[in-house]
Amino acid sequence: MSLLWCDKYRPKDFSKLDFHKEQGSGLKSLTKDGDFPHLLIYGPMGAGKKTRIMCLLKELYGTGVERLRSEVMTFTTPSNKKLEIGTVSSNHHIEVNPSDVGIYDRVVIMNIIKNVAQTQQLDLSGQKSFKVVVLTDVDALTKDAQHALRRTMEKYITNCRLILCSTTMSRVIPAIKSRCLCIRIPAPTTEQIVQVIEKTASLEDINFPRNLAEKIAVLSERNLRRALLMSEACKVEAEGKLTPNQNVAEPDWLLMIRETARIILNEQSIQQLKKVRENLYELICRGIPPEIIFKNLLDGLLKQCDLGLTAEILENAATYEHQMVQGNKEIFHLEAFVAKCMCLYQNVLEEMKSDF
Amino acid sequence: MSDYPNSDEEFELQYADELELLNDPEDFDEPVAKLPTKCTSRKSLEFGTPKSTYFKTQSDLFSSQSQNSEQNLNTSDSFSNDFHPINETNNAETSSIQNNTQNQNTATISSTQNDQEPTRKRTIEELFGDIDDLLFQGERKTKKAKASTKYEEQLEMIDKILELRKLNQEKDILLLRRNTTHISADEKMKLNISRRVPTYPFIAVTNYDKERFYVRCHSDDYEKEDIARVVKDINLVGTMGDMFKETWKKAQQILNSQLDSEKTAEETDIEEVEMEEDQNLWVDLYKPKRYLELLSDETTNRVLLKWLKLWDKVVFHRRPKIKKVEVDPKNKLNNQFNIENQLRLDEDGRPHFKVALLCGPPGLGKTTLAHVVAKHAGYNVIEINASDDRSLEFFRTSLENATQMRSVVDQQQRPNLVIFDEIDGAPSASVEFLVKFISGSASKGKKKEKDNANILKRPIICICNDAYVPALRGLRQVSFIVNFPPTSSARLSERLIEIARRQHMKTDIGTMQVLAEKSKNDIRSCLSVLHFFKAKDKYINLTDILKASVGQKDMQNGLFSVWNDIFSIERTKVKRFSVPVAAEGEDVEDYDMSYKARMRKILKVVQSFGDYERLAQGVFENYQEMQFKGSTLDGTCLALDWFCYTDRLNQYIMEQQNYSFSVYLPYAFVVWHYQFSSLNWPKIKFPTEAFEARQKLKNNIASIKELEKGLQPKIKIFVNQKILILDVLPSLTRIISPPFRPVNLHLFTAKEKAMFANVVDIMIDYNLNYVQEKNSDGVYEFKLDPDVFPIVEYPKLTTQNFRSLSYFNKQLIAREVEIGKIKSLQRPNDQSVDATKKKKQAAPSISPENDKNIPNHLKKLQVKSLKNATPVVTKDFFGRIIDKEANEASASSGPNIDHDIWFKYKEGYTNAVKKKIKMSQLL
Questions:
Q1: Do the chains contact at A251 and B730, CB–CB below 8 Å?
Q2: A323 CA to chain B: closest CA distance, Å?
Q3: How far is Cα B748 from Cα B673, in angstroms, rounded to an integer?
């Protein structure tokens, strides 16, 4: 059984964690009493949130949680629409991503928690008296669903504990934040990533150049999963002979966004705007979340333009992203932002010309 | 060149048959249409000659005969009309006689015509006898009987004519006698004048030529005597003798009374018309009743009539007049009138299209056209419109009734024609039934053998406003679509002025033209406006029409015209009727290119359209193509901000269901108009980008979900959609396509083999596989099963190329992955597999012991200890595994007496031998 490195060498125990060890031990002690509050675990992608959740569950229930099965549950909405949602569960916990069903997530939350909470563990000896429901992507939940969550959280606290997992706290309503113990899992530092890559390489019996590892660590934007996947891809590309200045394949969508940023700064006209829009549509239709596009576009822009526009562009980006969340059609807001940037850049260039 | 006809001749040739079409059926109309003219001709006769009352009674006699001869009388009328001027020059007495002879003439003519008539023209009976195809042959006899009675009628007529002739001859004798008396009177006159000096008392008279005449002087008594004698003479020879005066008086009386009655009739007629006017809408009052009165576009009318005439073969058993259209590439006109090719007959003699679909905006006269054309072609119209129940059941019965039966009550027994008005509103089930009915498949099951009785034999005309309603999709394909072009406003205004004149309304042609334009050539609304003005009872001028808000429908313009308005600045021009109603106090000059006016216009257009979201999308996807002024992007930024604003507002409205905010949406269009509009003609394309992007996204999300579903649970808990798209897939696609050599698996180095195994395992874990697919070029390719490549790849990026595995490698991988997947499915049952294996190993160990118990004579049949070795799996030709054990067992176990149940092997295939095989044994 060989897996991708990122899955294969995933720590299964708090003791095997590679970084944030103090936090790990803290979490471990949390379970010592045999009970813990609802948790809201948040942090950037690839920091190890899920890893820690699984460690926690294992600490609670033992190896039983590793026997996983995936099921498809069906629900009926009040409007008689049949919904299907995939869940992963063990005897002790169930994991579900309610935002898979879009606006019907409220129904999923209500049903699942009730299902779980209404059935008590029969064998209480040596077992915990509660089950755990892991909800992922909580930040993508609708407001309705979050409000539905707050009461159920309190009502069924004797029978189930919730572990919420999200990348950002900002979209979680304060009522839920206050009901949970919020734990932030920060992204690993580049050194930590390098260490992990080297450790993995040694386990795989590969000579991994340190320079390359550092390069990957930087390019991965401190996302450990991405870093490991990239290094594995590198290994495959290099056919075993890894060289320090080897080309590291970055995700194509990232390159695409950078290319778009380059187009914006290259020339400011309606025609360019048209090209930009084509690129943006390409990205959107491949399911790249518009926030990610916004963020990386901003990165690309700020890296390449240093005309004292940083503050202004940042402000605009913030405004337009905020508006985008309120709206429905991302392309409008993205394009408005792009046009604004073009406009600002053009004005500065004109001023510089007139100065000379 | 002379071979080809010139353009005029060509046109005539082209339309010769159509002219015939137009002329041919007039015999239907004639009794109705020509009636008034006939009356007037008769009247004039009566004025000229009082004696013609006699003639009239004669003609009454004729008219009472039969419908057939009445037609002939028509012609005789016209004959007498021709003679009329001569009658007037003659003096009163002779004219009456003349008339009689003339009458005799016409009578003979009519009698000869009577003989010819049935051969030349169709009589009503002949025409509608054809409908008998619907009924059965029983009626044939009655038809014959009818024919015989007709013959008798004609005989009678001839007799009558002979009588009349005799009568006339007698009159001729009288005439001769009278002439002689005239001559004697003249001779008498000669005795009273002389040139010489007479003997009797005289008066001398000198004329201009200085000739002297001597006129005799009578005494007064003599004069009186003489006059009395002359009068007596004349009266003696007069046709009616002393009765003359009385007859004259009577005639005068009859004439006067007739005139009076006609006058009163006219008066009452007028009154009646006025009464009707009060009761009826003008739309009905002035509805065209004949083909030539139609207002709609002439080509459209003709096309429909032509189509309807094609039914003649089936309905009337007449050969339809279609010119054989020779396919001549040189003849441009042929290609131009391509529609003729559509008007072909099918094998049943029916037109290729069984249904005509008239479509066009309201108020152009579609329904009227259908009715008039149907009547013109001799059909009885059955109309089913939106006011009727149009459920499937009702629809079916009415359709079948109309097409397969005929009215018994109706005297004329014309064939039916069904008009489905407003069919775009009918339930789609009904329309589907209609389509089935047309194509002839609606007949139920068994009847199909004698299907001929059931096929559609009557024309159907459907009328709709919008041919592109989804419900009509099926119908559109099987029907002959006639698109209704708008009526020309010149024709419409002419008709309007005529109507106005008839209604004694004072107006002028210019006003009517404006009215026509204002209502977008909607005849109905024009008439309603006129009717409205009639109530005011004064001269209607231009300003009245301009100011009137009536007749202006809330016209919904098409999407493209709205976009057009947004993207273009209208050039200033004198606008006649766009004086805004709301801004009466303002100057007309204000209505030019001012921002205010433009804003008002855009708001109006956009608000009346309503679908803001689609409009906005159209503006968004088109603005980049527009050539608007402005070197900087400031304006664009502003416009885009408004896009953001509308998007947010829309989202808010949707979320809160608070539609009161949607009043603010149209203002964005004003900004976009100010920003993007130009004087150039905008080229607008339909917005599809967003839709396409959404479709692609849907597809991609679907394949991601597919992938997610198949993931191993232990991987699944650590990933979600976002992570898959952003992190995993871009690297994964690289990891699973290492640089393999395209050689056989056996030739791989150990390292390569390990790599290969790794790839296969990863693909199994991620539920990926290669599937053979035929691409558009017809070449087989291996594609990833949840095809994630389109999600990862960006064809626009040239910086990085994906390495794609060779076909051969993909095939290898695909095979291995299949095997691996089956293995992994088997894994949960590993223990049970082991158990069976053990049993199997145990089983053969028993057999040697059994050998000993077998009787000697059978021993040689036993194959020696084959099963102790590891079971060798052999495959047959097709790659199926041959179950040796089973075969052998069946071969050998025949005489096995140890077992309770045994069977004998018989030659040939048997299903009796079955054995459970685990997948693991096969792999």
A1: yes
A2: 7
A3: 67
Which B residues 618-677 touch A at CB under 8 Å? 620, 624, 632-634, 636-637, 640-641, 643-644, 647-648, 650-652, 654
Which tokens go with B686? 């339909």
Q: How far apart are CA B50 and CA B255, in angstroms?
A: 8
The pLDDT value recorded for residue B898 is 61
Considering only the C-alpha atoms of chain B, give the largest distance between any 2 of them, rounded to a whole number of Å.
Answer: 189
A71 bridge partner residues:
A87
Q: Which long-range contacts (CB under 8 A, 24 or more apart) does B179-185 make?
A: B181/B233, B181/B234, B181/B236, B181/B237, B185/B230, B185/B233
Tokens representing A271 are 């025609």
Contact B693 A289 (CB under 8 A): no
Residue of A137, A255, A346 lying closest to B800 (CB–CB):
A255
Span A342-356, mean pLDDT? Answer: 85
Residue B186 tokens read as 């003249």
Q: Is A354 on the interface with B (CB under 8 A)?
A: no
Reported as a single tens digit per residue, the pLDDT across B414-471 is: 788 888 888 877 777 888 888 888 776 544 433 333 444 466 778 888 888 777 777 7
Cβ atoms A100, A124 nearer than 8 A: no
Predicted pLDDT of residue A173: 92
Chain segment B841-860, per-residue pLDDT in tens: 444 444 444 445 555 555 55
Average pLDDT over every residue of B144-160: 69
Residue A252 has pLDDT above 80, yes or no: yes
What phi and psi, each to the nearest 5 degrees, are found at residue B203?
-125, 130
Q: Are B308 and B314 in contact (CB under 8 A)?
A: no
Residue A76: CB atoms within 10 Å? 11
Mutate to test the interface with A, among B652, B715, B731 (most CBs of A within 10 A): B731
* Contact check, Cβ <8 Å, A137/B634: no
Check CB contact of B828 with chain A, cutoff 8 Å.
no
Q: Is the CB of B697 inside 8 Å of chain A's CB atoms?
A: yes
Are the C-beta atoms of residues A310 and B725 closer than 8 Å to each other? no
Q: Rounded to whole angstroms, how far apart are CA atoms B741 and B808? A: 10
Residue B63 to residue B370: CA distance in whole angstroms = 34
The DSSP result for B242-276, as a single string, is THHHHHHHHHHHHHHHHHHHHHHHHHHHHHHHHHH
Contact status of A232 with chain B (Cβ, < 8 Å)? yes
Whether the predicted model's global pTM rises above the 0.90 cut: no
pLDDT in tens, B654-671: 888 888 888 899 999 998
pLDDT confidence of B334, banded at 50, 70, 90?
Answer: very low
Provide the token pair at B405.
Answer: 């039966």
The H or E element that residue B302 is part of is helix B298-309
Place of tokens 């530092």: A189
Residue B255: phi and psi, rounded to 5, are -60, -50
B748 close contact with A: CB closer than 8 A: no
Mean of the pLDDT values across residues B623-648? Answer: 84
pLDDT in tens, B474-511: 888 788 888 877 777 788 888 888 888 887 777 777 88
Whether this model's ipTM surpasses 0.95 comes out as: no
Locate A300 and state its tokens: 């690309």
Mean pLDDT score across all residues of chain B: 68
Q: Note whether A68 contacts B714, CB cutoff 8 Å.
A: yes
Q: Distance of alpha carbon B265 from its chain centroid, rounded?
A: 44
How many angstroms separate the CA atoms of B890 and B899, rounded? 13
- Cβ of B633 within 8 Å of Cβ of A342? The answer is yes
Using only the alpha carbons of chain B, give its radius of gyration: 50
Retrieve residue B299's tokens.
């080509």
- The token pair that represents B752 in the structure block: 């390569």
| Mean pLDDT of the B802-831 span | 75
**A249: its two tokens:** 């394949």
- At A51, the amino acid letter reads T
